[in-house]
Amino acid sequence: AIERVFGAPAPRLLKRSPQILSLDTALLDARRQALQKILPDIDVGSILRRAPALLSYSSSTLRSNYECLTANIPEVPASQLVRAQPTLWCSNMTSNVLPKLARLRQLTSEEEFMRLCRP
């Protein structure tokens, strides 16, 4: 079931994210489908192979984080950011991402910021 959800060999995924063993396969399927709805134009399987722990987060948390990325970095589509760095999607936006983003904006010109945000 794990290989079907992720499209990759289970041992490799479990080595990277053993907590997914504690999740019911129906829940894994449901969360994968929910992620695909958030990112309809992206192969969610490729993101999950790189960051299998994403399935341990609720879809509402990931949707909220996705909306936060969209609102705070409007210059770059959040889907591109998630594709380039999937673990960004499950980071704590309030305490980790937003303060670092604000500091980065302070330290760079708009042109430099855009260059750094390009996936």
Topology diagram in text:
Elements: H1 2-6, H2 10-16, H3 25-38, H4 44-50, H5 59-72, H6 78-84, H7 93-107, H8 110-117
Helix pairs in contact: 3-5, 5-6
Task: Describe the structure in your own words.
The chain is mainly alpha-helical and 119 residues long. Helices cover 65% and strands 0% of the residues. It has 8 helices and no strands. The protein has helices at 2-6, 10-16, 25-38, 44-50, 59-72, 78-84, 93-107, 110-117. Helix 3 (25-38) runs parallel beside helix 5 and helix 5 (59-72) packs across helix 6. The longest helix is centred in the last third of the chain and has 15 residues, at 93-107. The chain starts with a helix and ends with a helix. The mean pLDDT is 83.
Supply the key terms.
119 residues; mainly alpha; 8 helices; 65% helix; elongated
Summed up:
The chain is mostly helical. 65% of the residues lie in helices and 0% in strands. The protein has 8 helices and no strands.
